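Researcher: Structure for this, please.
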Amino acid sequence: MSEPVRISVVIPTYQRCASVRRALEALAHQTMPAAEYEVIVPIDGSDDGTKEMLDGFQAPYRLIADWHPNQGRAAARNAGIRLAQGRLIVFLDDDMEPAPGLLLAHWDAHPRGSRRAVVGPVPIPVDASSPPIVRYRHSGMNAHLDRLAQPGYQLGFRDIYSGNLSLTADVLREVGGFDETFKLYGHEDYELALRLAQAGVELGFCPAATAYQAYDKDLAALAQDCIAKGRTAVLFARMHSDVSSSPQLATYRAGPRKWRLLRAPLLLLSRWFPTFPERVIAFVTWLERRRPRRLDTYYRLALDYFFWVGAQSALREQRRPDTRLMRIGLGLLVLFALASDLRLLVRARRDFATIAPPDDITRYEDRFRELRRVLPPRARVGYLTDVTPPASVAGDDPARLAFKRYVLTQYALVPAIVLPGIHGALTVGNFDTAGGIDPEATRGRTLVRDFGNGVMLFRTAAE
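Model: Predicted structure, token format:
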């Protein structure tokens, strides 16, 4: 009769066959003997060949694949818990590549009789070829891990993440596992950690239990994660109303005033036009290609915006159905907010004059009037401008000036949909009239019509 395993490694996955294979290959090189651990892969409805890959994978350890219809990460982890035979359960995300000593480090972090939940470092490796968004995530993760590693630092439930987490099966089953109400990305690990802390479980950090995160998400995928986190933050707040659910939920009125003034209309546009977040993704992706000096700031602001897109969407759903009393209360709250923010609104008017003065708006309406007449209603067109925007009298840096010009162009061409870069056959050109056409920006495009004042319409060469 074989000896019982000491550790059960649970790796939930969805549509990431190649990532899971990397994790399984890394687990084959652990310093812990292979007979002492098992690996369970709950497949959360994947149809990308993950099940077939696992069926044929030759592992030195016991490998269990469990396919079930897509139910979310919390349900997938619980499925793994039910199959686990080890005294200690280690959760890894499917994009982790565990270091050889990871399992022994987790095992040593749980002496007999202890009641602990332990996270290990999840650094994101980068090199010269790494995209800007990966470098941005690398910096943020390093700052978080440096804080956890400080001597004497006491972990709170918000410090816990399930990408590299260990706890005994007894403790996990005692608190009930993950809450399967969480179907979307985010906060299911916070919610478990909160219940663990309330049950007297010590939250710890083990620097030796390292798993390297093979981060391969682009901006669009990260934006969708942030929208999901906004929604799950509201769900967490509803479940634990006595706890501040997410630092971001409490900071809507915090942060730079100019950003708050810009974010409010962006969120309003997102409510009116469901595809507006896609335009923001397209614009920030366009910025990525130009590598402005303050790209990390634009990332931070954009991800904050996406979080609030998700949070406000969930809050609106939570408020339904409205009652007459609730509407009256909301109206009184709005009146109170307007009264208390009168000074802020006065300043906002002054700032708006700096961002897009009426003269600019009028000028752009006049400048694009002829083009607007020839564009089909609700046409989706690309957008080109100078590779190096002209200097701004207002002192805007190039990226801010480019964004201002893009927003004003979109305003002038409504109801057409203007997207940065090349989208479909037609592309709008918005160039500095003093410099004429920027040949680098228009390379590969055929001029259809020049409307004057730097406004042009191009067709892609392929068309």
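Researcher: Any notable elements?
Model: Confidence is low (pLDDT under 50) at residues 351-356. The chain is about 45% helix and 15% strand.
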